[in-house]
Amino acid sequence: MESRGKPAHRRRRWILVGSLLVGTLALGWGLRLLLQPERMGALIVAQAESATGLRFELDEPARLGIFPRLKLQLIGLSIRQSPQHSALLTAERVELALPLAVLWSSTPEIGRIDVVTPDINLPAVLEWLAVDESNSGPPEAISLPAFATEARISNGTLRAEGFALSDIELELSPLRDSTPATLSLAAEWQGDRESLPFQLISRATPEQTADGIRLRDLHIALSLRDEGEPLLSIAGETDLLPPQRITLALTATLSNPAQLSSTPLPPEITQLLSEPLTVAYDGAANFSAELTLRNENAETPIALSTRLSALLDWIANPERTLLPPAAGRLALPSLEVEGVRIEGLRVELTPDAPDPSSK
Q1: Which residues have CB under 8 Å from 43's CB, separation 6+?
Q2: DSSP-derived 3-state class of residue 201
Q3: Beta strands in the chain (DSSP E)
Q4: Contacts of range 69-76, beta carbons closer than 8 Å, 24 or more positions apart
Q5: pLDDT tens digits, the chain, 359 residues: what are they?
């Protein structure tokens, strides 16, 4: 009797497994017929193109995934201004999590966006932002998404001239008007001869305006991965009005300037760099206008202007000059270097001034 029971038990088990398999295949086929992923993907792509003025291309029609959750998969995504332009972004795939409400809703809804292995071409993005508004760019003011959803980037890369960000892991909470949101980013800065892993956490309250989006109560903390204390803290607000304009009104504070240098800094320089800096920008969205940096300390005044692109190029250059590409002035009551003490030091910077380190 015992030997006869085992084959029957095995048969029942295989019947159960087979039933589950058949049921799963039937469910997938039924959902595919009901949701029509190719049509839904084309609709989402058309909506994205209308909202941004960009061209979205896929290597193959959208397809449906069931496990571990219901999702629409966009395979081989590329985004560009036109067929003649380089891609702003390519991605191995984009997964759009679909809530159950999509089964009876007349319009597609998205529960979460996962962008897998994206490659972001920063020069192409900046070129797009610099295009005259009469010829290209978004036809209307940038706006918060019609649906609030979480977004995640995994294994991403950002390429620029002179540097790159690799191993990008990013998470963004849903964006809702007048509701606090959080962005977390971990990546590795790759220069020509050096690399630096870092992480960034940003919190702000997005607010829809007539011209774009305002980020109120903005707080950013930038840390090196092997350091517990944030290296840089930023607070303030910004207006995002691309492609025509971006404004920044921020206060930046370095908590530990010594992390910026491989050699010990003089105490006076450390104190100067520790002073809160007011960062202001009002210009084109590709940051081609001047960025100003000032402090409010009468004893160690700083008043500098620079361009972000030139500043990033200077940071990324392993053979960078001693002084950054900036115009303005700074002052120190005293400075002692290798036993030599200088009183009442004032430095005037001009864009065409020769750098002392080049002599």
Answers
A1: 108
A2: strand
A3: 55-57, 63-65, 71-80, 87-97, 112-121, 150-159, 164-172, 181-190, 195-208, 213-224, 232-241, 245-254, 277-283, 290-294, 302-307, 326-337, 340-349
A4: 69/97, 70/31, 70/97, 70/98, 70/99, 70/100, 70/102, 71/95, 71/96, 71/97, 71/98, 72/37, 72/40, 72/41, 72/44, 72/96, 72/98, 72/108, 73/37, 74/41, 74/44, 74/45
A5: 445 555 655 555 554 544 444 444 444 444 444 457 788 888 888 888 887 889 999 999 988 877 667 888 999 999 999 888 999 999 999 998 877 655 555 555 677 899 999 999 999 998 887 765 545 445 467 788 776 789 999 999 999 887 899 999 999 999 999 999 999 999 998 877 778 899 999 999 999 998 889 999 999 999 987 666 788 899 999 999 876 789 999 999 988 776 666 667 778 777 877 889 999 999 988 888 999 999 877 777 888 899 887 877 776 665 666 567 889 988 878 777 777 788 888 888 886 554 544 44
Distance between CA atoms of 59 and 31, rounded to whole angstroms?
23
Count of Cβ atoms closer than 10 Å to residue 23 Cβ: 10
Please tell me the distance from the alpha carbon of residue 95 to that of residue 117, in angstroms, as a whole number: 12
Tokens of 127: 């070129």
Phi, psi of 50, rounded to the nearest 5 degrees: -65, -35
3-class DSSP assignment, residue 10: helix
Tokens of 121: 């071409």
In angstroms, rounded to a whole number, what is the distance separating the alpha carbons of residues 169 and 185?
6
pTM (2 d.p.) = 0.78
- Only one residue has tokens 């207006």, namely 239
> What one-letter code names the amino acid at 280?
A
- What span, in angstroms and rounded, lies between the C-alpha atoms of 251 and 275? 10
Q: Which residue, among 311, 352, 355, has the nearest Cα to 162 in the 3D structure?
A: 311
